[in-house]
Amino acid sequence: MEIKEKVINAGSMISGSASILGSYQLCHSLCLSAIALLSIIGITVTGMPLLFLTKVAVPFWIAGFSLLVLMIVLAQYNILHFSNKLMLANLGLLTAGVPFERLAQFQKFFWIAGILLVVASISWAFAGRKNKSCCVSESKVTLKRRTKK
Question: Is the entire prediction scored with pTM above 0.70?
């Protein structure tokens, strides 16, 4: 195999492997899709139709937090580049959604801190777009080139 093919294969493998980093958002997307589908077909939802998910909230939260830490480490060591704005928003969502019963008495503080982080991320994103005429997404994962010294 030529060097060019090896480089292309390695890039493809890294890209596919990095796509798992956004998978913790899958649960939230599925829940919103289920609620939207129910409303489209005319079913009025009262209460919490997805209450069964509260039993697995802690493992999902731990997985989401672990993936966020992994993203921060990869960004810190310049292996992959992720949008700092999105990482801040994800940190805010994870902070607002702390599911541990021992911390239930502090839940309001977690909500406030999480909401403030998300608002800061959104305002940071809009402040950066003020000078741009096009909607360029910064959320794409890009591989940084390493230069030999």
Answer: no
Helices in the chain by DSSP H: which ranges? 3-18, 26-40, 57-76, 84-96, 107-129
> For residues 120 and 85, what is the distance between their CA atoms, to the nearest angstrom?
9
SS3 at position 140: coil
In 10 A of CB 121, how many CB atoms?
Answer: 21
**Chain Cα centroid distance, residue 18:** 13
Q: Angle at the Cα of 137 (from 135 to 142), degrees rounded to 5? A: 150
CB 61 within 8 A of CB 99: yes
Cα 7 to Cα 98: distance, rounded to the nearest angstrom: 41
**66-91 average pLDDT score:** 88
Residue 106 has φ and ψ, to the nearest 5°, of -105, 10
Let me know: does 127 contact 98? Beta carbons within 8 Å. no
Domain extents in the chain: 3-143
Per-residue pLDDT reduced to its tens digit, 52-75: 777 888 888 899 899 999 988 988
